Amino acid sequence: MSTTKQEFSRHVSVPSDEGVRVDKAITIEKPVTEVYSFWRRFENLPRFMRHLESVTVQDDLHSHWVVKAFGAKKLEWDSEIIEQRDNEMISWRSLPGADVDNAGSVWFTPVPAGNGTVVRLEMKYVPPGGKTAASISKLFRQDAGSEIDEDLNRLKTLLETGQLPEEEDDAMAQWRERTVEFTRKAADAANEYVHENPWVIVAGMAIIGFTLGLLLGRGRDRSARLAEAFTPD
Predict the structure, then answer these.
(1) Phi first, then psi: what are they for 152, rounded to 5°?
(2) What is the pLDDT of residues 154-192, one digit of tens each?
């Protein structure tokens, strides 16, 4: 077993207190050597990652990623491997200037007493539009966790059968893209408004709290009066 190591800068692509975490796993009925080898050839990744347009390998540790995003927009970044162990794991992080800061690891674990492999993907990323965008998009099942679930299932089907599952029709794909674009714009607008008008938000929350307190107080007073009315002398 070999391990690739290199001295790196202190750059951290996603600080520990930022970003959205995704942790997904799937069991594939293929030996770990086959699954790891397929994944490690990064040019294979767009075959099952639906929104990944291309991965261009630059050298043993560096690659360039292009993702299809909202409408005709594309997101790009350079990535570097920070650790890898043959048939066991690969860890990476994006380099400065990325459209989407991200970092994570993918683990390949043999199934005990079997011929399968558990693929576990752990990652963090900073979504365009911030956490508000990630939260709103979940209402439409467009968050990264859902997308990775679908991608891993596509990988399982591809490696086990040699074919990809049937794709959704064009109308559904277009609806999904319009939905993502709408949620992104809504999240950007919400983030900008909160940033520019923080005291409006605070005042609004104060008014809501005062109103709820007033209503609850009236409710208690009414309950007390009713109790007195029905209490025998």
Answers:
(1) -65, -35
(2) 999 999 999 887 654 444 455 555 555 555 555 555 556
* CA distance linking residue 115 with residue 26, whole number of Å: 14
Phi-psi group of 19: left, alpha or beta (phi > 0 → left; psi -120 to 50 → alpha; rest → beta): left
The proportion of the chain whose per-residue pLDDT surpasses 90, expressed as a percent, equals 41
CATH architecture of 3-128+139-178: 2-Layer Sandwich (3.30)
Task: Determine contact, residues 107/92, Cβ cutoff 8 Å.
Answer: no
Strand stretches in the chain, DSSP E? 3-4, 20-28, 52-57, 62-68, 74-85, 89-94, 102-110, 117-125
Domain ranges of the chain: 3-128+139-178, 197-229
User: In the beta sheet, which residues pair with residue 51?
Assistant: none
* Spatial distance between the Cα atoms of 97 and 7, rounded to a whole number of angstroms: 20
Mark 69-99 as b/e (b = at least 16 C-beta within 10 Å): bbeeeebebebbbbebebbebbbbbbeeebb
Specify the residue for token string 């190591």: 5
pLDDT in tens, 71-102: 678 889 999 999 999 999 999 999 999 988 99
Contact yes or no for 54/155 (Cβ under 8 A): no
From 111, 102, 149, select the one nearest 35 (Cα to Cα): 111
Cβ atoms of residues 85 and 102 within 8 Å:
no
